[in-house]
Amino acid sequence: MDYEFDFSVGCDRELWIDDEQYHIQNGCFVIRKPGQKVYSDGKYNCYMLTLDFFNRLHSVKYSRKSATEMQAPFESDMWQVLPSVFEPRHYQDYVRIFEALLSINETDINQNPRALLLVNELLHLIVSDAYDQTMPESTVQKTPIDEICSYMKSHFAEDIQLTDLAAIAHLNKNYLVRQFRKTYGISPIAYLIKIRMDYSKKLLTESNLPVKQVASECGYHDPSFFHSYFKKTFHMAPREYRQQHKQI
Questions:
Q1: Which range of residues forms the domain containing residue 220?
Q2: Quick one: which of 10, 32, 150, 206 has the most CB atoms within 10 Å?
């Protein structure tokens, strides 16, 4: 009846969507759309998210088993190209997002601004990962610099050191820094800080998360480091930035 998303964390089952059969294992992501006929056989353990893109009012006791009106098709070409089943590259990010959603202990999760941010992040990852698997490989070979840029964009909340990036690129640290500067005009770590700072602005203006938690979400477990980098980048403290730019 709705858009449903399963992320399997312990599965070995057969799944049929509109009579097409899929073997579901750990790490598989399943997209079900309104109007599809779905059934499965076998054991599974998964996170599941149900989304309504039309702002219909549901009871807080909403249940998949209850009889609800079928959601209208979402008018977007994106849904036409996404596969029903794929294996995402960002496994740990999916786990992090689902666990964060589960930790929101509210009667109506729809009223939580952090939930909206997490769902938006999940949808972007779904599109990115599904696109990678459905589109043909590009004839343009990715450079080591491209690889570490992609890595930093996906893992900026983790503890990333220059040695880690050098290992990913299979390059000497000094050579990596020189090549990165030639391409972007800044060092890899400065690039990472920029990614984190841009994301911190989004969290400060679009959520009510405490500044300490914003720092953690951006990869800074010591809030003082986050405060220092933020003030150096934007010439004001995080709380001051939030007060000036908070979206109503």
A1: 138-248
A2: 32
